[in-house]
Design brief:
- By secondary structure, the protein is mainly alpha-helical.
- It has one domain: Four Helix Bundle (Hemerythrin (Met), subunit A).
- Helices cover 67% and strands 2% of the residues.
- The protein contains 7 helices and 2 strands, in the order ααβααβααα.
- A two-stranded antiparallel ribbon has the order 1-2.
- The termini are far apart.
Amino acid sequence: MKPDHPNRIKLMDMISRIVPSAFFLFVVVLKSTELYTFLKLHYAANEPASLKFLVDVMSRSSTVCFLALMTILFFVRLEPVGKARSLVSRVMAIAGTFFVALVTLFPRANLSMTQSLVASLISITGTILSIVALAHLGRSFSLMAEARRLVTTGPYRIVRHPLYLFEEVASIGVLFQFFSSYTAMIFLAHVVIQLQRMKNEEGVLEKAFPEYQAYKATTARVIPKLY
């Protein structure tokens, strides 16, 4: 009796769609509830809409939108035409995706109003730019190092990994809000993992798409003219 290999692959693909989608959907519901409670308490106290309040609402709303988009894209993404086989690359992909969330489990830093505004604006900017990159990536979005479709439009015309770049910008804003020596070490570890993930993904894309070499020769990895 032959092993049911194709069915196993389909099952694993479905699990890889449902599990992260369910996780991000849970976080979307959680953050939406927090936003609702935040607004409810503010209006119940009859407080004026200060600049800090408006920035805070924008920051929370953009985070919900970013997570919601990831929830949808995880589920509707295309089937891969190539993927990394090593266990290390898969572990790093999972760690890189969820590691920075550990920062938010620490107590918030005691920031001044100006510091809080700057941190929120950095987070908002990174989140909005991440949404733009995700919109161009579309169904080619992936958690693991996998090749679905070569995207070279929008921010991908300038750098090969704009989503990683923009996510790090948003993460820096989050780090400032929870800054400590421990969160700084977690963030540095996260950056190292993300850099290796880029290399893993490039290796997969080079094998899947012959035209990737030409694209790679004309673009920077994350920062034009620097890296």
